[in-house]
Amino acid sequence: MSRIMQRWFSSWLKRRIPAATQQTLSHHSIFILPSGFGLLWIVLTVLLFLFGTNYQNNLVIGMSLLLASVFISTILHSYRNLAGLTLLSAGSTHTYAGQQLSIPVKLYATKPLYQLQLSFPHNDELRVIEVGQQPQTRVLSFATHQRGPLDPGRMRIESRYPLGLCRVWSWLDLNTQHMVFPAHHNGRLPFSSLDGDSGETGAALKGVDEYAGLRSYIPGESLKQVAWKQWAQERGMLSKEFTTPEGEPVWLCLPSQLDNMALEHWLSVLSFQIDELAKTPNQYWGLQLGQQRIAPSNGQEHRLICLTALALFQLGTGDD
Amino acid sequence: MTESHDNITRHTLLWLLITNIAVIMPLADKSSVATLGICGICFVWRIGIYFGRVARPPRWLVTTLAIAAAATLALVSRELGMLNALINLLILGYALKYIEMRERRDILAIVLAGFFLIALAFIDKQGIGDTLLSLLVIAINTATLLSVYRGQQNLILQARHAGVLLLQSLPLALALFIVLPRLSPLWLVPQSKGATTGLSDEVSFGDITQLTRSQELAFRVTFDGQPPATATLYWRALVLTDYDGHRWRQSEPTRSINWFRPYNIDERQDPPSENQLNYSVIAERSGQHWLFGLDRAQSQTKGVKQLNDYRLVSVKPIEQKFQYQVTSAIGAPLNRVPSRVELDQDLSVPAKLNPQTIALGKQYAAQYQNPRQRLAAMMQLFNQQPYYYTLTPPALGQNQLDEFLFTTRQGFCVHYASAFTILARASGLPARMVTGYQGGIYNADAGYMSVYQYMAHAWSEVWLPDSGWVRYDPTAMIAPERIEQGFDSMFAAEDSYLADATFSGIRNSSWFNAIRLQLANLDYYWTVWVLGFNEQRQQQLLSKLLGEATPLRIALFLGSVITLVMLIIAWHTGILRLPTRRSPIDSGFTKVANAAAKMGVERSISTGPNAFSEQLKQHWPALVTDIEQWRSCYSQLKYQQKNSSQISQLKKKFIFLSKSLSKKIRKSH
Q1: What was the ipTM of the complex prediction?
Q2: Where in the numbering of this chain does the Transglutaminase-like domain appear (chain B) (predicted)?
C-alpha cells in the first residue's frame, strides 16, 4: 500500500516539479506543514486557552491567542525561507562503488535564507547556515552501492527557520548523472599483448630500452644495471634506470566467459589496476572488455574513459 | 532528529541564561525558598557551562537536585495549596530540564515550558506593567527559540527579530481576542492560596491603621448617572457582631459559612425602591469573599450573593479583578427582622470587662427612654468631650473601652465604632459593627470612582424596630479641630495615607498628580476592557465595530484581519512586491520593444538602445526617420542634463513618439 502511495507520489512530483538542472523554488514547488514541535506549540496554545478560560483570565487567553498568531505568521516566514532559492547542478562526479559520491550543488537566493538542510533520502544531511546572492557550491553526499551510471533522484531541501514551528520542504531533481566505477580490488590481472598472448609481467614494466637516470641500487637487482662507472668514481652503488618508451603499451583484458560474481570481481581488479597504471608516469595502457576495445593512451582523461567503460560493462539494466 | 550538542550556539546559551531569570523572576513570590534555591544552583551551573568552567552536570548532582525538588514539593505542598504546589512543580521541572539540557530538542522543551510559566504569572499579576513585563519575557523566550535557528546572527538582531515577529502577530491576536467567544469555566480549578489584602474579618484596634496607610486600590465603581455625594458613600463589606474585649469577629454562622452552598443567603427579593442606584464595581484581588455595596444592595451577577445582613459576597474568593453589577436602594431600610438568637448576639457584652462603659450605657438607658434620643446623646458624647482622632493612639490595657472612653480619649474609627456599639448594647439596643470603606475619589473624565485601602472605615448599626438597622458613625462626630493626624477620606486629609509613601514631597506638584490621574485612568480602561472583557462587552464592542454582530460579519472581519496581517508580513519579508510605477521613459521604450518583438524582432538584454534602433531600422527601413527621432529623444532624456520644464516636454514628446512608432511597427506587414 505504502509502495503504491510512494509511486503515486513520485509520479505526481515528476509532473509538478519536473527535473531540470536549474530550479528556483516558489509556491509551486514548496510544501509546508507544521513540524512536531509546531504541533506541540498548538497543544500548548490550546492548553493555555483552557487554562485562561477556567480561571476566567483574559491575559492568559490573550497570551494563548498571541502564541497562536505567532504560529500563523511563522508560516509565511518559513515559506519565505525557501522561496527564491535557486539550485543549480554543478556538474557530474564519479566515485567508486561503496564510497560516498559527492554531488556538487550551487545555491543562491535573491534574499538571504537561513539554516537549510539538503539531503538525498537515506543519506547524510548537509546544513547550509546562510544562502545569499553570492552563489556558493556545496557538496551533498550520496552513498553508492554498485557500479554504473547513477541518477541520485530527488533531493530534499528543508528548513525550519525561524522558530521550528513549520517544516518547509521541496523535492528537486537537478537532472544529473554521475558515474560509479567498480570498487577497487587489490589484485592483478596479467597484462597481455594485443594478440592476447601472455607477455610481459608487471616487473618487466621497467623497460630496458631507454636510459632514464640513476637511482640508488636496491640489493637483488641485476648487476647488469649497476652503473659501474659511477661506482668507480666512488659515488656509491647506483643503478641505471630504464623505462619502456611511449608507444609500447600494456593491455588489460577482461577474461571472457565469466559468471556474474567473477565478472564483478575482475572488473574491480581492473579498476584497481587502471588507477595503479595511471599513477605511473608515461605508462600507456589499453583496455579490452569483450568486444569493446579502448586504444592505449595515458593521462586522467584516458583513465576516466577506461573506468567508465568498466562501470558500464554488461550492466543488466544499464543504459549505454 | 539528529541534532547534536554542537548545534547549540553560544548565543543560544546566553539567551537561555537570560530567559531562565526572566521566566522565574515574576513567579518568585509563588515559589518556596527551596525551589528558588534549586533554581539558583541550576542557574549557577549553567553560568559555569557558559564560561567553560564546568562541564555537563554530573549524574549525582542532577539526581540530588531531583530528590531535593521532590522533597521540597512534598514538604511545602500542603502549606502552599494545590495551585502553588503545581506552580512549584513546574518551576522545578523547568530548572532541572535546564541544567540537563544538551540537545536542540531540550531547548525546545524549555521554551515551551517557559511559555507556560509565563502564563502562570498572569494568575495574580494583571496590571499593565506586569503585562508589558510578561510581553518582554515572551519576546526573550521567543528570541531564545529564534537563536536556535539563527545562531550566527548577533544578539541584538536576534532580539529585534523576535520582537518584529511578535509585533506582526499582535494584530491577529487582538482580533481573535475580540472575536472568539468567551466560555464559562469548563471545570473546577484549584485556586491559589495567596495572601489576603484589604479588610480582614477580624478587627482589633491595631488593624485598620495598617490599611489607612495603604494607597492601594480596593475597588472601582462606575455609576449609571451621577455619583451620590461622597459623604453618603458607606461601602458595607463586613458585619462584625462578636466582641471578646479585644477583637471583633463575624457571627459564628457567618464565620463557618460553606461558600459553595451558603445557607444564610436570602433569596428573597427586596421590594423595589424609588431611589434606585445602579452601578458596577470592579473589586481588586483580595483573596477574600466579601464584596462592597451601598445601603440595601443586590446583585444579579453570577456568583454574587446577598447575605441576610444585606451585604454582598462572592461564592469564590476574589483572586483576580472581579466585576459585578449592583442595584442599591439608597435610604431604604435594612429592616429584615433578625431572629431572636441574632438579636441576643447583638446585645451581648463581654462579661467582667469594661465596667465603666457598661455603667455609662445603663446610665444613658435610664436617662433617655426613646432609643433615638439615647443614641443621639451618645453621638454627642464624642463631639462634646475632648476626643481626638489619631492614627497612632496610645496602647490600651485589659479594659480597652474603659481606658479609651475615660482616659486616653484618642483613637480612630475602630475605637469609636467599638465604644459606640458596646455603649448601645449596654443600654439595651441591639448593635453591631460594620466595616467597609467610606468615600471614593471620582474621576469625572473617565467617569469612575476609585476607592483606596486608606478609605477603610468602621461604623455602627443599631437595630430600631420601627426602621431596621440604622447607621451611626461616631467617628464623624469628632470636632474637626481635634483631628490630630490625618484620617480617612471623609476628612479629606491628604496626608493620612502618605505616612509610608516615599515621595510625599512631589506628591503635591500638579504635574505629578496629572500623570497619576492619567495612569489611574489607563488602569481603569485596562481593567474594564481587557481584564473585564466579557461576553457583554464583547457584544458591545462587536456591534460598535461591525454594526451588527452576525456570524458572517465576524467571519468577514476575522478574514480581513488575517489577510491584512498576512499581506503586511508578506510585504515585510519580501515575498510580496508592490508594483512600482515605472518611469514613462522606460515604459515607452518597452512599448516599442514589445511591438517589435511581436513582429519577430527580439531585443536581447545586451542590446543597448542605439544598437536596438539600428536593428529596428534594418527591419523597417520605411520608418527610419521615426526611429531616429525616437532614439534621439530617448538618449536626450536618458543621458543629458536638462531643466525640469524641458524634461517634462521631452517626456511628453517621447511618449507620443513611442506610441506612434509602436503603432506603425504593428501595422507594417
Answers
A1: 0.77
A2: 405-476
